[in-house]
Amino acid sequence: MARSYITHLECSLTGENTYAAGEVHNLSAAGRPLMARYDLDTLKNEADRDEIWARPGGFWKWRELLPIQHSRNIISLGEQVTPIIECAKAAGFVGHKGELLVKDEGRLPTASFKARGLGIAVSMAKELGLKRLAMPTNGNAGSALAAYASRANIETYIFCPDDTPLINVTETSLQGGKIWRVNGYIDDCGKIVAAGKERMGWFDLSTLKEPYRLEGKKTLGLEIAGQYQWELPDVILFPTGGGTAVVGMWKAFAEMEALGWIGPKRPRMIVVQAAGCAPLARAFDAGKKHAERWENAHTKASGIRVPQAVGDFLVIDIARLSGGRVVAVDEDELMDMWREVSGLEGLMLCPEAAAAFVALKNGAEEGWIKPDEKVLVVNSGNGLKYEMPDQAGSLDITTPIDFEGLAPTG
Questions:
Q1: Which of 47, 281, 290, 374 has the greatest number of CB atoms lying within 10 Å of its CB?
Q2: What whole-number distance in Å separates Cα of residue 145 and Cα of residue 141?
Q3: What is the helix (H) or strand (E) element at residue 344, kind and residue range?
Q4: Distances (CA, A) of 1 to 79, 102, 391
Q5: Range list of H helices, 100-232
Q6: 367 and 92 in contact (C-beta within 8 Å)?
Q7: Of the candidates 138, 183, 63, the residue with the CA atom closest to the CA atom of residue 303
Q8: In 3-state terms, what secondary structure has residue 7?
């Protein structure tokens, strides 16, 4: 196995770089996320971009840019590169005249992009000798943690809001996770994890409160670059709660440029939230660096219902630096878009991705997404994990069937 080129970790807020690789870490001394750093100068001379891209193994192909030191600690569930799919009919529906592709993360193990972060984090937990992990979740992260940790023989304690989609709860328990419903939001669940840390002896695997879920999400950016022949799209729309994937992609782009794999061009990052829970959008519009907690958060797109995120400043900075923005979309429009685009393209979108399509429609109408731009929407998970609208009709076999009435006229 190719070796990891990790050297150390540093604070994302202060730049303090005294955190050693190969040791257990949560947040920095400043209470902010830690970033893994790599010896990119040496890697540039020792690895070939195209050879790495040609490897099998899904996100594990990028092992030089991942923190795991020993191949025996890799926990795999058969990962593959997720496809990017042209969606011309959806483009027409939302009014975008340029190229529109969807990257379907629902094809990953446990059917969401959370497999990237948790696959790497659990493998690192194994390498570091951790035996018990705990985490809050809105659903998909919990099932990914349970699946990878069970395979690694690591015990998991998972806490979710009590209105988390049923399938997320049941799949988590079926795959070996110990899960509890909580009468609060995901940040309330996070407080339980923090409060029980000393007594229960678990490691807190919350979003951006440890450094390695971010490294897994980074592989999304690496993969997108390879699929675009090392020329990134003009715009990436990503539905966002905690923001790990946005931060991870941006980190991947910077590392690839330092390696000479891509040029300086960056996509405009459009961070998408639902109007019922939009703390990042509110802070962005107000010109602030940090976001205040969003009270009474609500949206059917449960994966982006995060009232407060520890990495808020990172996500907001990325939107600004890229020339992008953080936007909130209407809940009713989101649900209508979910039905329309899924039906037009035959893709099993999740509601979170539907929010990104609403943002694309708004951007096309308002002019901040141009007709000739190459746009990528990330479908962060499989729509089967949500309660879907039931649009089936009914037939009575005891009466004659009106076949002509089955199809609309015109």
A1: 281
A2: 6
A3: helix 331-345
A4: 17, 32, 50
A5: 114-127, 140-151, 166-174, 186-195, 197-200, 212-227
A6: no
A7: 138
A8: strand
Rounded to 10°, the helix 140-151/166-174 angle is: 10
156 Cα distance to chain centroid: 21
In contact, 60 and 76? CB cutoff 8 Å: yes
Contacts of 260 (CB under 8 A, 6+ apart): 44
154, 131 contact by CB (below 8 A): yes
Q: How far apart are CA 142 and CA 162, in angstroms?
A: 13
pLDDT tens by residue, 236-290: 999 999 999 999 999 999 999 999 999 999 999 999 999 999 999 999 999 999 9
- At 159 the three-state DSSP class reads strand
Indicate the residue type of 357.
Answer: F
Contacts 24+ apart (CB under 8 A), 368-372: 368/325, 369/96, 369/235, 369/270, 370/98, 370/234, 371/96, 371/97, 371/98, 372/97, 372/98
Other Cβ atoms closer than 10 A to 234: 18
Long-range contact set of residues 288-293: C-beta below 8 Å, sequence gap at least 24: 288/316, 289/313, 289/316, 289/317, 290/316, 291/316, 293/187
pTM above 0.70, yes or no: yes
